[in-house]
Design goal:
alpha/beta, NAD(P)-bd_dom_sf, Epimerase_deHydtase, Putative dehydrogenase, about 190 residues, 4-stranded parallel beta sheet, 6 helices, about 35% helix
Length: about 190
């Protein structure tokens, strides 16, 4: 299968490229900067910024993927400018995701009801950096019940991983994790 990994130089994207290739997939890596184009161990590297809609549409069309995996963040900037890193990551998760879904095989129609965002580490909210004891103490984020309620509602609306009959992702842990933004061709 031809797979495009957006965010292929990141903590999740980089090993994912290798894992997909090891399973026989033809992998294209989407990177934002020309200087990072040699980093991923992919069959092809495409340079485009997910926030540049037209540039992204052209880049994705050029590699004709059958599936797109979204692992984009700007967390590499975290050490130098945390506020900018989180602001850009938020834009990548909203505007960038919308652009990537539009560029994916079948466009927005194929992704309707199929997009899933899995939070790793629990359903808490980002409240800014904490130092010292405040980082491990304090009021926890929203209760897990809210997350489960959202999953039930999504399942009732027909969302979920293809093949689960709209029952969500099926299972938990590593076996049930579906990378955010996976849009298989023909699953619309």
């Amino acid at each position: 299968m031809r797979v495009l990994v957006a965010g292929a130089t990141g903590v999740v994207g980089h090993p994912l490229v290798g894992a997909l290739r090891a399973r026989g997939h033809q992998v294209s890596a989407l990177v934002r900067e020309e200087s990072r184009a040699k980093a991923p161990d992919a069959d092809a590297v495409v340079v485009a910024d997910a926030l540049d809609r037209q540039g992204l549409l052209s880049a994705v069309a050029a590699v004709r993927p059958e599936a797109v995996v979204h692992q984009m963040t700007a967390l590499r900037l975290l050490r130098d400018d945390p506020a900018a890193a989180f602001a850009r990551t938020a834009r990548l998760r909203t505007e960038g995701t919308a652009n990537l879904v539009e560029a994916a095989p079948g466009g927005r129609g194929a992704a309707a009801g199929r997009a899933e965002h899995r939070l790793r580490g629990g359903p808490g909210r980002w409240a800014g950096p904490r130092r010292g004891r405040a980082a491990v103490r304090g009021r926890p984020g929203p209760r897990l019940g809210r997350h489960r309620t959202g999953r039930r509602r999504a399942g009732a609306a027909g969302a979920g991983r293809p093949g689960t009959g709209g029952r969500g992702t099926g299972g938990g842990g590593a076996g049930g994790v579906v990378p955010a933004g996976v849009v298989p061709a023909g699953q619309g």
